[in-house]
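Exercise: predict the structure of this protein bound to NDP.
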Amino acid sequence: MSDIQFFGHIIDGEEVESLDGARFDVWNPWTQEVFAQAAEAGAADAARAVESSRRAFEEGPWPRMGRAERAAAIHRLADLMEERADDLARLDSTNMGKPFAQAKHDVGRSVWNFRFFADHQRDHVGEVYPMDSGHHSYSEFGPAGVVAAISPWNFPLMMATWKIAPAIAWGNTCIIKPSEDTPASVTLLGRLAIEAGFPPGVLNVLNGHGAPAGAALTADERVDRVTFTGSSTTGKAVMASAATHLAPVSLELGGKGANLVFDDADLDNAVHWAVEAIFRNSGQICLAGSRLFVQSGVHDEFMDRFRAAAEALVIGDPFDPATRFSVLASRRHFEKVRGYVESVEEQGGKVLTGGVDEDGAWLVRPTIVTDLPLTAPQYCEEIFGPVCVVNRFETEDDVVALANDTRYGLNAMVFTENLSRAHRVSSRLRAGTVWVNCFFIRDLRTPFGGVGDSGVGREGGNFSREFFTEPKAVVMQIDRG
Ligand code: NDP
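Solution:
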Protein backbone atom coordinates (compact mmCIF):
# COMPACT_ATOMS: atom_id res chain seq x y z
CA MET A 1 0.00 0.00 0.00
CA SER A 2 3.04 2.32 0.23
CA ASP A 3 2.91 3.73 -3.34
CA ILE A 4 -0.87 4.01 -3.35
CA GLN A 5 -2.29 7.25 -4.75
CA PHE A 6 -3.89 9.79 -2.44
CA PHE A 7 -6.71 12.19 -3.24
CA GLY A 8 -6.99 14.98 -0.69
CA HIS A 9 -9.55 17.73 -0.39
CA ILE A 10 -8.87 20.83 -2.43
CA ILE A 11 -9.61 23.69 -0.04
CA ASP A 12 -8.54 27.31 -0.41
CA GLY A 13 -6.06 26.62 -3.18
CA GLU A 14 -4.30 23.68 -1.47
CA GLU A 15 -4.64 19.93 -1.38
CA VAL A 16 -5.13 18.94 2.24
CA GLU A 17 -5.86 16.03 4.54
CA SER A 18 -8.96 15.99 6.70
CA LEU A 19 -8.59 17.85 9.98
CA ASP A 20 -8.61 14.54 11.86
CA GLY A 21 -6.52 12.74 9.21
CA ALA A 22 -9.35 10.33 8.29
CA ARG A 23 -9.15 8.55 4.92
CA PHE A 24 -11.20 6.00 3.01
CA ASP A 25 -10.30 3.38 0.41
CA VAL A 26 -10.95 3.96 -3.28
CA TRP A 27 -11.65 0.87 -5.36
CA ASN A 28 -10.99 -0.34 -8.87
CA PRO A 29 -14.07 -2.45 -9.65
CA TRP A 30 -12.38 -4.34 -12.52
CA THR A 31 -9.46 -5.63 -10.42
CA GLN A 32 -11.49 -5.52 -7.20
CA GLU A 33 -8.52 -3.85 -5.52
CA VAL A 34 -8.02 -0.65 -3.58
CA PHE A 35 -5.98 1.61 -5.86
CA ALA A 36 -6.05 4.82 -3.84
CA GLN A 37 -7.14 6.50 -0.67
CA ALA A 38 -9.05 9.73 -0.30
CA ALA A 39 -9.42 12.18 2.53
CA GLU A 40 -12.67 11.57 4.37
CA ALA A 41 -14.43 14.77 5.34
CA GLY A 42 -16.23 15.26 8.60
CA ALA A 43 -18.54 18.14 9.41
CA ALA A 44 -15.55 20.32 10.40
CA ASP A 45 -13.93 19.84 6.97
CA ALA A 46 -17.21 20.72 5.26
CA ALA A 47 -17.42 23.88 7.40
CA ARG A 48 -13.85 24.75 6.45
CA ALA A 49 -14.64 24.37 2.73
CA VAL A 50 -17.75 26.53 3.05
CA GLU A 51 -15.82 29.16 5.01
CA SER A 52 -13.21 29.31 2.24
CA SER A 53 -15.77 29.58 -0.58
CA ARG A 54 -17.75 32.18 1.37
CA ARG A 55 -14.62 34.30 1.84
CA ALA A 56 -13.75 33.92 -1.84
CA PHE A 57 -17.23 35.12 -2.70
CA GLU A 58 -17.38 38.05 -0.26
CA GLU A 59 -13.83 39.32 -0.61
CA GLY A 60 -12.12 37.62 -3.54
CA PRO A 61 -11.78 38.79 -7.15
CA TRP A 62 -13.89 36.08 -8.81
CA PRO A 63 -17.42 37.55 -8.59
CA ARG A 64 -16.05 41.05 -9.28
CA MET A 65 -13.82 40.42 -12.26
CA GLY A 66 -14.88 41.22 -15.81
CA ARG A 67 -16.78 38.60 -17.72
CA ALA A 68 -14.05 38.25 -20.33
CA GLU A 69 -11.39 37.73 -17.68
CA ARG A 70 -13.49 35.07 -15.94
CA ALA A 71 -14.16 33.35 -19.25
CA ALA A 72 -10.42 33.35 -20.01
CA ALA A 73 -9.66 31.69 -16.66
CA ILE A 74 -12.25 28.99 -17.32
CA HIS A 75 -10.91 28.38 -20.83
CA ARG A 76 -7.44 28.03 -19.26
CA LEU A 77 -8.80 25.25 -17.08
CA ALA A 78 -10.41 23.63 -20.14
CA ASP A 79 -7.05 23.79 -21.96
CA LEU A 80 -5.36 22.00 -19.07
CA MET A 81 -8.09 19.37 -19.07
CA GLU A 82 -7.45 18.75 -22.75
CA GLU A 83 -3.73 18.38 -22.06
CA ARG A 84 -4.47 15.91 -19.27
CA ALA A 85 -7.42 14.19 -21.00
CA ASP A 86 -5.81 10.75 -20.87
CA ASP A 87 -5.10 11.09 -17.15
CA LEU A 88 -8.65 12.23 -16.39
CA ALA A 89 -10.13 9.41 -18.46
CA ARG A 90 -7.77 6.87 -16.93
CA LEU A 91 -8.94 7.83 -13.45
CA ASP A 92 -12.63 7.43 -14.33
CA SER A 93 -12.01 4.07 -16.04
CA THR A 94 -9.94 2.83 -13.11
CA ASN A 95 -12.35 4.13 -10.51
CA MET A 96 -15.66 2.92 -11.95
CA GLY A 97 -14.90 0.42 -14.71
CA LYS A 98 -16.00 2.50 -17.69
CA PRO A 99 -14.35 1.52 -21.02
CA PHE A 100 -11.50 3.96 -21.62
CA ALA A 101 -12.87 5.16 -24.99
CA GLN A 102 -16.14 6.12 -23.26
CA ALA A 103 -14.23 7.87 -20.48
CA LYS A 104 -12.32 9.88 -23.12
CA HIS A 105 -15.64 10.84 -24.68
CA ASP A 106 -16.84 12.01 -21.24
CA VAL A 107 -13.71 14.16 -20.81
CA GLY A 108 -14.45 15.85 -24.14
CA ARG A 109 -17.97 16.64 -22.97
CA SER A 110 -16.64 17.88 -19.63
CA VAL A 111 -14.27 20.28 -21.38
CA TRP A 112 -17.18 21.50 -23.49
CA ASN A 113 -19.24 22.13 -20.33
CA PHE A 114 -16.61 24.66 -19.25
CA ARG A 115 -16.12 26.27 -22.65
CA PHE A 116 -19.86 26.56 -23.26
CA PHE A 117 -20.70 28.26 -19.94
CA ALA A 118 -17.58 30.48 -20.04
CA ASP A 119 -18.90 31.95 -23.30
CA HIS A 120 -22.56 31.80 -22.37
CA GLN A 121 -22.14 34.11 -19.36
CA ARG A 122 -20.42 36.67 -21.59
CA ASP A 123 -23.07 36.59 -24.29
CA HIS A 124 -26.25 36.42 -22.20
CA VAL A 125 -25.71 39.33 -19.86
CA GLY A 126 -29.29 40.50 -19.48
CA GLU A 127 -32.41 41.76 -21.24
CA VAL A 128 -33.67 45.29 -21.92
CA TYR A 129 -37.39 46.16 -22.11
CA PRO A 130 -38.40 49.62 -23.40
CA MET A 131 -41.69 50.45 -21.63
CA ASP A 132 -44.69 52.41 -22.93
CA SER A 133 -44.80 54.51 -19.74
CA GLY A 134 -41.64 56.54 -20.35
CA HIS A 135 -39.39 54.14 -18.53
CA HIS A 136 -37.18 51.35 -19.53
CA SER A 137 -36.27 48.34 -17.51
CA TYR A 138 -33.56 45.80 -17.69
CA SER A 139 -32.57 42.59 -16.00
CA GLU A 140 -29.24 41.88 -14.39
CA PHE A 141 -27.94 38.45 -13.46
CA GLY A 142 -25.62 38.69 -10.48
CA PRO A 143 -23.99 35.65 -8.88
CA ALA A 144 -26.02 33.90 -6.17
CA GLY A 145 -23.14 33.20 -3.77
CA VAL A 146 -21.76 29.86 -2.60
CA VAL A 147 -22.91 26.77 -4.51
CA ALA A 148 -22.82 23.27 -3.02
CA ALA A 149 -22.71 20.65 -5.78
CA ILE A 150 -23.11 16.94 -5.07
CA SER A 151 -22.40 14.60 -7.95
CA PRO A 152 -22.79 10.86 -8.57
CA TRP A 153 -20.42 8.05 -9.56
CA ASN A 154 -21.79 7.06 -12.96
CA PHE A 155 -20.17 9.94 -14.89
CA PRO A 156 -17.77 11.17 -12.21
CA LEU A 157 -16.12 13.98 -14.16
CA MET A 158 -18.90 14.83 -16.58
CA MET A 159 -21.68 15.23 -14.01
CA ALA A 160 -19.43 17.25 -11.70
CA THR A 161 -18.44 19.66 -14.48
CA TRP A 162 -22.05 20.00 -15.58
CA LYS A 163 -22.62 21.61 -12.16
CA ILE A 164 -19.31 23.38 -11.56
CA ALA A 165 -19.09 25.05 -14.97
CA PRO A 166 -22.28 27.17 -14.87
CA ALA A 167 -21.84 27.83 -11.13
CA ILE A 168 -18.39 29.41 -11.47
CA ALA A 169 -19.02 30.94 -14.89
CA TRP A 170 -21.78 33.07 -13.40
CA GLY A 171 -19.41 34.34 -10.71
CA ASN A 172 -20.28 32.04 -7.83
CA THR A 173 -17.83 30.05 -5.78
CA CYS A 174 -18.38 26.32 -5.58
CA ILE A 175 -17.80 23.31 -3.37
CA ILE A 176 -18.12 20.00 -5.17
CA LYS A 177 -18.56 16.75 -3.29
CA PRO A 178 -18.06 13.82 -5.63
CA SER A 179 -19.52 10.45 -4.74
CA GLU A 180 -17.49 8.54 -2.19
CA ASP A 181 -17.12 5.81 -4.85
CA THR A 182 -15.41 8.09 -7.38
CA PRO A 183 -13.31 10.88 -5.91
CA ALA A 184 -10.33 10.53 -8.28
CA SER A 185 -11.01 12.53 -11.47
CA VAL A 186 -12.73 15.42 -9.67
CA THR A 187 -9.76 15.78 -7.33
CA LEU A 188 -7.46 15.98 -10.36
CA LEU A 189 -9.80 18.64 -11.75
CA GLY A 190 -9.36 20.61 -8.51
CA ARG A 191 -5.58 20.36 -8.88
CA LEU A 192 -5.86 21.66 -12.45
CA ALA A 193 -7.94 24.61 -11.23
CA ILE A 194 -5.05 25.56 -8.93
CA GLU A 195 -2.66 25.23 -11.89
CA ALA A 196 -4.96 27.39 -14.00
CA GLY A 197 -4.61 30.16 -11.41
CA PHE A 198 -8.11 30.10 -9.95
CA PRO A 199 -8.26 32.25 -6.81
CA PRO A 200 -8.41 30.16 -3.59
CA GLY A 201 -11.91 29.02 -2.66
CA VAL A 202 -13.48 29.43 -6.12
CA LEU A 203 -13.48 25.66 -6.62
CA ASN A 204 -13.17 23.52 -3.51
CA VAL A 205 -13.35 19.72 -3.69
CA LEU A 206 -14.61 17.95 -0.60
CA ASN A 207 -14.16 14.19 -0.53
CA GLY A 208 -16.24 12.00 1.73
CA HIS A 209 -19.53 10.25 2.27
CA GLY A 210 -23.04 11.57 1.72
CA ALA A 211 -23.35 11.73 5.47
CA PRO A 212 -21.72 13.54 7.15
CA ALA A 213 -19.94 15.47 4.34
CA GLY A 214 -22.74 16.02 1.80
CA ALA A 215 -25.35 16.51 4.49
CA ALA A 216 -23.20 19.14 6.25
CA LEU A 217 -22.92 21.11 3.00
CA THR A 218 -26.64 21.14 2.25
CA ALA A 219 -27.50 22.15 5.82
CA ASP A 220 -24.99 25.03 6.00
CA GLU A 221 -26.81 28.33 5.92
CA ARG A 222 -23.81 30.02 4.27
CA VAL A 223 -24.61 27.97 1.14
CA ASP A 224 -26.88 29.80 -1.32
CA ARG A 225 -27.61 27.11 -3.93
CA VAL A 226 -27.64 23.31 -3.85
CA THR A 227 -27.36 21.27 -7.03
CA PHE A 228 -27.59 17.50 -6.71
CA THR A 229 -27.63 14.47 -9.02
CA GLY A 230 -28.37 11.05 -7.58
CA SER A 231 -31.23 8.91 -6.39
CA SER A 232 -34.75 10.25 -5.85
CA THR A 233 -34.65 9.20 -2.20
CA THR A 234 -31.48 11.15 -1.44
CA GLY A 235 -32.81 14.04 -3.55
CA LYS A 236 -35.74 14.40 -1.16
CA ALA A 237 -33.37 14.48 1.85
CA VAL A 238 -31.22 17.09 0.11
CA MET A 239 -34.26 19.25 -0.63
CA ALA A 240 -35.52 19.02 2.96
CA SER A 241 -32.10 19.97 4.29
CA ALA A 242 -31.69 22.95 1.95
CA ALA A 243 -35.21 24.09 2.84
CA THR A 244 -34.13 24.74 6.44
CA HIS A 245 -32.26 27.81 5.20
CA LEU A 246 -34.33 28.39 2.04
CA ALA A 247 -31.56 27.58 -0.42
CA PRO A 248 -32.99 26.87 -3.88
CA VAL A 249 -32.26 23.36 -5.14
CA SER A 250 -31.79 21.83 -8.55
CA LEU A 251 -32.29 18.07 -8.51
CA GLU A 252 -31.53 15.64 -11.30
CA LEU A 253 -32.79 12.29 -10.06
CA GLY A 254 -33.63 8.83 -11.28
CA GLY A 255 -35.29 7.71 -14.47
CA LYS A 256 -37.02 4.80 -16.17
CA GLY A 257 -36.69 5.90 -19.77
CA ALA A 258 -39.17 4.59 -22.33
CA ASN A 259 -37.86 3.67 -25.75
CA LEU A 260 -40.61 3.47 -28.40
CA VAL A 261 -39.91 1.63 -31.67
CA PHE A 262 -42.70 1.99 -34.24
CA ASP A 263 -43.35 -0.28 -37.23
CA ASP A 264 -42.00 2.36 -39.60
CA ALA A 265 -38.67 2.85 -37.76
CA ASP A 266 -35.33 2.50 -39.49
CA LEU A 267 -34.43 -0.73 -37.72
CA ASP A 268 -30.64 -0.45 -38.09
CA ASN A 269 -30.77 2.92 -36.42
CA ALA A 270 -33.29 1.84 -33.77
CA VAL A 271 -31.23 -1.22 -32.81
CA HIS A 272 -28.03 0.79 -32.64
CA TRP A 273 -29.56 3.34 -30.26
CA ALA A 274 -31.51 0.78 -28.23
CA VAL A 275 -28.19 -0.91 -27.45
CA GLU A 276 -26.50 2.39 -26.59
CA ALA A 277 -29.44 3.51 -24.48
CA ILE A 278 -29.37 0.57 -22.11
CA PHE A 279 -25.88 -0.93 -22.34
CA ARG A 280 -23.59 2.11 -22.59
CA ASN A 281 -21.84 2.66 -19.25
CA SER A 282 -23.25 -0.77 -18.27
CA GLY A 283 -26.68 0.82 -18.02
CA GLN A 284 -25.57 3.10 -15.18
CA ILE A 285 -27.26 6.11 -16.70
CA CYS A 286 -30.26 7.95 -15.33
CA LEU A 287 -31.34 8.41 -18.98
CA ALA A 288 -31.16 4.68 -19.77
CA GLY A 289 -33.76 3.27 -22.14
CA SER A 290 -34.68 0.61 -19.60
CA ARG A 291 -38.28 0.11 -20.79
CA LEU A 292 -38.38 -0.81 -24.46
CA PHE A 293 -41.70 -0.91 -26.33
CA VAL A 294 -41.74 -2.45 -29.82
CA GLN A 295 -44.73 -2.31 -32.17
CA SER A 296 -46.13 -5.69 -33.26
CA GLY A 297 -45.30 -5.42 -36.96
CA VAL A 298 -41.53 -5.25 -36.37
CA HIS A 299 -41.37 -6.90 -32.97
CA ASP A 300 -39.87 -10.25 -33.93
CA GLU A 301 -37.35 -8.89 -36.42
CA PHE A 302 -36.31 -6.10 -34.06
CA MET A 303 -35.88 -8.49 -31.15
CA ASP A 304 -33.69 -10.87 -33.19
CA ARG A 305 -31.42 -8.00 -34.16
CA PHE A 306 -31.43 -6.36 -30.72
CA ARG A 307 -30.52 -9.60 -29.02
CA ALA A 308 -27.73 -10.30 -31.54
CA ALA A 309 -26.32 -6.80 -31.05
CA ALA A 310 -26.42 -7.16 -27.25
CA GLU A 311 -24.64 -10.51 -27.42
CA ALA A 312 -22.00 -9.07 -29.77
CA LEU A 313 -20.85 -6.41 -27.29
CA VAL A 314 -17.25 -7.15 -26.34
CA ILE A 315 -17.06 -7.50 -22.55
CA GLY A 316 -13.76 -7.08 -20.76
CA ASP A 317 -11.01 -4.94 -19.24
CA PRO A 318 -11.92 -1.23 -19.47
CA PHE A 319 -8.42 -0.55 -20.82
CA ASP A 320 -8.59 -3.07 -23.65
CA PRO A 321 -9.41 -0.98 -26.76
CA ALA A 322 -11.81 -3.69 -28.00
CA THR A 323 -13.96 -3.49 -24.84
CA ARG A 324 -17.41 -1.99 -25.23
CA PHE A 325 -18.93 -3.18 -21.95
CA SER A 326 -17.50 -3.83 -18.51
CA VAL A 327 -18.20 -4.28 -14.82
CA LEU A 328 -20.51 -2.33 -12.53
CA ALA A 329 -19.03 0.51 -10.52
CA SER A 330 -18.91 -1.08 -7.07
CA ARG A 331 -19.68 -4.25 -5.16
CA ARG A 332 -22.63 -2.55 -3.46
CA HIS A 333 -24.13 -1.57 -6.80
CA PHE A 334 -23.43 -5.00 -8.31
CA GLU A 335 -25.34 -6.63 -5.45
CA LYS A 336 -28.29 -4.32 -6.06
CA VAL A 337 -28.47 -5.08 -9.81
CA ARG A 338 -27.90 -8.79 -9.20
CA GLY A 339 -30.96 -8.84 -6.92
CA TYR A 340 -33.18 -7.52 -9.72
CA VAL A 341 -31.79 -9.94 -12.33
CA GLU A 342 -31.96 -13.04 -10.17
CA SER A 343 -35.60 -12.44 -9.29
CA VAL A 344 -36.89 -12.00 -12.86
CA GLU A 345 -38.29 -15.51 -13.11
CA GLU A 346 -39.90 -15.42 -9.72
CA GLN A 347 -41.73 -12.30 -10.96
CA GLY A 348 -42.99 -14.22 -14.00
CA GLY A 349 -40.46 -12.88 -16.52
CA LYS A 350 -37.95 -14.52 -18.88
CA VAL A 351 -34.30 -13.64 -19.33
CA LEU A 352 -33.88 -13.71 -23.11
CA THR A 353 -30.14 -13.13 -22.90
CA GLY A 354 -27.58 -11.98 -20.33
CA GLY A 355 -27.63 -12.53 -16.59
CA VAL A 356 -25.17 -12.36 -13.75
CA ASP A 357 -21.56 -13.38 -14.34
CA GLU A 358 -20.72 -16.45 -12.28
CA ASP A 359 -16.93 -15.97 -12.21
CA GLY A 360 -16.80 -13.49 -9.34
CA ALA A 361 -16.54 -10.31 -11.40
CA TRP A 362 -18.91 -7.46 -10.48
CA LEU A 363 -20.47 -8.06 -13.86
CA VAL A 364 -24.02 -8.30 -15.14
CA ARG A 365 -24.01 -9.14 -18.86
CA PRO A 366 -26.20 -7.17 -21.28
CA THR A 367 -29.58 -8.50 -20.19
CA ILE A 368 -32.90 -8.49 -22.05
CA VAL A 369 -36.04 -9.44 -20.15
CA THR A 370 -39.50 -10.20 -21.54
CA ASP A 371 -42.92 -11.31 -20.25
CA LEU A 372 -42.79 -9.37 -17.00
CA PRO A 373 -46.04 -8.09 -15.50
CA LEU A 374 -46.27 -4.29 -15.47
CA THR A 375 -46.24 -4.36 -11.67
CA ALA A 376 -42.85 -6.13 -11.38
CA PRO A 377 -40.10 -4.15 -9.60
CA GLN A 378 -37.81 -4.67 -12.61
CA TYR A 379 -40.37 -2.83 -14.77
CA CYS A 380 -41.27 -0.08 -12.30
CA GLU A 381 -38.06 0.71 -10.41
CA GLU A 382 -34.78 2.21 -11.52
CA ILE A 383 -32.30 -0.68 -11.71
CA PHE A 384 -29.44 1.50 -12.96
CA GLY A 385 -27.82 -1.45 -14.69
CA PRO A 386 -27.73 -3.25 -18.07
CA VAL A 387 -31.25 -4.65 -17.83
CA CYS A 388 -33.77 -3.90 -20.56
CA VAL A 389 -37.42 -4.86 -20.03
CA VAL A 390 -39.23 -5.31 -23.36
CA ASN A 391 -42.95 -5.13 -24.15
CA ARG A 392 -44.90 -5.34 -27.40
CA PHE A 393 -47.52 -2.71 -28.30
CA GLU A 394 -50.22 -2.26 -30.94
CA THR A 395 -51.22 1.42 -31.19
CA GLU A 396 -49.78 4.86 -30.64
CA ASP A 397 -52.32 5.58 -27.90
CA ASP A 398 -51.41 2.36 -26.10
CA VAL A 399 -47.70 3.05 -26.10
CA VAL A 400 -48.04 6.67 -25.00
CA ALA A 401 -50.12 5.51 -22.04
CA LEU A 402 -47.58 2.80 -21.18
CA ALA A 403 -44.62 5.17 -21.48
CA ASN A 404 -46.26 7.78 -19.26
CA ASP A 405 -47.34 5.28 -16.62
CA THR A 406 -44.34 5.82 -14.33
CA ARG A 407 -43.50 8.08 -11.44
CA TYR A 408 -40.36 9.11 -13.30
CA GLY A 409 -40.21 11.46 -16.28
CA LEU A 410 -36.64 12.15 -17.28
CA ASN A 411 -36.51 11.13 -20.92
CA ALA A 412 -37.94 9.01 -23.71
CA MET A 413 -36.85 7.93 -27.18
CA VAL A 414 -39.05 7.64 -30.27
CA PHE A 415 -38.04 5.70 -33.38
CA THR A 416 -40.20 6.39 -36.42
CA GLU A 417 -39.74 7.69 -39.97
CA ASN A 418 -43.16 9.39 -39.84
CA LEU A 419 -42.59 13.08 -39.20
CA SER A 420 -46.07 13.84 -37.91
CA ARG A 421 -45.97 10.92 -35.52
CA ALA A 422 -42.54 11.97 -34.26
CA HIS A 423 -43.82 15.42 -33.30
CA ARG A 424 -47.19 14.21 -32.03
CA VAL A 425 -45.76 11.51 -29.77
CA SER A 426 -42.91 13.72 -28.50
CA SER A 427 -45.45 16.26 -27.43
CA ARG A 428 -47.59 13.69 -25.59
CA LEU A 429 -44.74 12.10 -23.63
CA ARG A 430 -44.34 13.22 -20.03
CA ALA A 431 -40.58 13.65 -19.96
CA GLY A 432 -37.92 16.35 -19.67
CA THR A 433 -36.15 15.25 -22.88
CA VAL A 434 -37.40 13.32 -25.90
CA TRP A 435 -34.89 12.00 -28.41
CA VAL A 436 -36.25 11.18 -31.87
CA ASN A 437 -34.20 8.59 -33.78
CA CYS A 438 -31.22 9.15 -31.49
CA PHE A 439 -30.10 9.16 -27.84
CA PHE A 440 -27.71 11.04 -25.50
CA ILE A 441 -27.09 13.95 -27.89
CA ARG A 442 -27.11 17.24 -25.97
CA ASP A 443 -27.34 20.87 -26.91
CA LEU A 444 -26.26 22.73 -23.78
CA ARG A 445 -28.61 25.62 -24.58
CA THR A 446 -31.71 23.48 -24.04
CA PRO A 447 -33.38 22.63 -20.71
CA PHE A 448 -32.24 19.45 -18.99
CA GLY A 449 -34.13 17.92 -16.09
CA GLY A 450 -37.08 15.75 -15.24
CA VAL A 451 -40.72 15.51 -14.29
CA GLY A 452 -42.12 13.85 -11.14
CA ASP A 453 -39.60 11.75 -9.22
CA SER A 454 -36.96 12.55 -11.85
CA GLY A 455 -36.23 15.93 -10.39
CA VAL A 456 -36.90 19.57 -9.70
CA GLY A 457 -35.86 22.41 -11.98
CA ARG A 458 -33.96 22.56 -15.25
CA GLU A 459 -30.35 23.32 -16.06
CA GLY A 460 -28.70 24.24 -19.37
CA GLY A 461 -28.23 27.58 -21.14
CA ASN A 462 -30.48 30.30 -19.72
CA PHE A 463 -32.05 27.75 -17.35
CA SER A 464 -28.68 27.42 -15.61
CA ARG A 465 -28.43 31.19 -15.55
CA GLU A 466 -31.78 31.43 -13.71
CA PHE A 467 -30.66 28.94 -11.11
CA PHE A 468 -27.10 30.07 -10.48
CA THR A 469 -27.82 33.82 -10.32
CA GLU A 470 -29.98 36.29 -8.45
CA PRO A 471 -31.87 37.99 -11.27
CA LYS A 472 -32.53 41.66 -10.59
CA ALA A 473 -34.88 44.15 -12.28
CA VAL A 474 -33.76 47.77 -12.69
CA VAL A 475 -36.46 50.24 -13.78
CA MET A 476 -35.40 53.71 -14.96
CA GLN A 477 -37.48 56.74 -15.72
CA ILE A 478 -36.33 58.24 -19.03
CA ASP A 479 -39.21 60.63 -19.73
CA ARG A 480 -40.84 62.80 -17.03
CA GLY A 481 -43.59 63.73 -19.59
P1 NDP B 1 -27.20 8.56 -3.85
O1 NDP B 1 -28.32 9.37 -4.32
O2 NDP B 1 -27.29 8.00 -2.48
O3 NDP B 1 -25.83 9.41 -3.88
C1 NDP B 1 -25.56 10.43 -4.81
C2 NDP B 1 -24.67 11.48 -4.15
O4 NDP B 1 -25.30 12.06 -3.00
C3 NDP B 1 -23.35 10.94 -3.62
O5 NDP B 1 -22.34 11.92 -3.76
C4 NDP B 1 -23.68 10.69 -2.18
O6 NDP B 1 -22.54 10.58 -1.38
C5 NDP B 1 -24.49 11.91 -1.85
N1 NDP B 1 -25.35 11.78 -0.67
C6 NDP B 1 -25.86 10.66 -0.11
N2 NDP B 1 -26.61 10.98 0.98
C7 NDP B 1 -26.57 12.33 1.09
C8 NDP B 1 -27.16 13.28 2.00
N3 NDP B 1 -27.94 12.89 3.01
N4 NDP B 1 -26.91 14.59 1.80
C9 NDP B 1 -26.15 15.01 0.78
N5 NDP B 1 -25.55 14.16 -0.11
C10 NDP B 1 -25.78 12.85 0.04
O7 NDP B 1 -26.94 7.44 -4.91
P2 NDP B 1 -26.11 6.09 -4.76
O8 NDP B 1 -24.74 6.38 -5.20
O9 NDP B 1 -26.30 5.45 -3.42
O10 NDP B 1 -26.89 5.18 -5.83
C11 NDP B 1 -28.14 4.61 -5.50
C12 NDP B 1 -29.09 4.67 -6.65
O11 NDP B 1 -29.32 6.01 -7.02
C13 NDP B 1 -28.56 4.03 -7.93
O12 NDP B 1 -28.72 2.66 -7.90
C14 NDP B 1 -29.43 4.72 -8.95
O13 NDP B 1 -30.68 4.09 -9.02
C15 NDP B 1 -29.57 6.12 -8.41
N6 NDP B 1 -28.59 7.06 -8.99
C16 NDP B 1 -29.02 7.94 -9.94
C17 NDP B 1 -28.12 8.78 -10.56
C18 NDP B 1 -28.54 9.73 -11.61
O14 NDP B 1 -27.74 10.08 -12.48
N7 NDP B 1 -29.76 10.25 -11.57
C19 NDP B 1 -26.70 8.76 -10.25
C20 NDP B 1 -26.35 7.86 -9.18
C21 NDP B 1 -27.29 7.05 -8.59
P3 NDP B 1 -21.98 9.10 -1.09
O15 NDP B 1 -21.58 8.52 -2.39
O16 NDP B 1 -20.84 9.39 -0.20
O17 NDP B 1 -23.10 8.35 -0.41
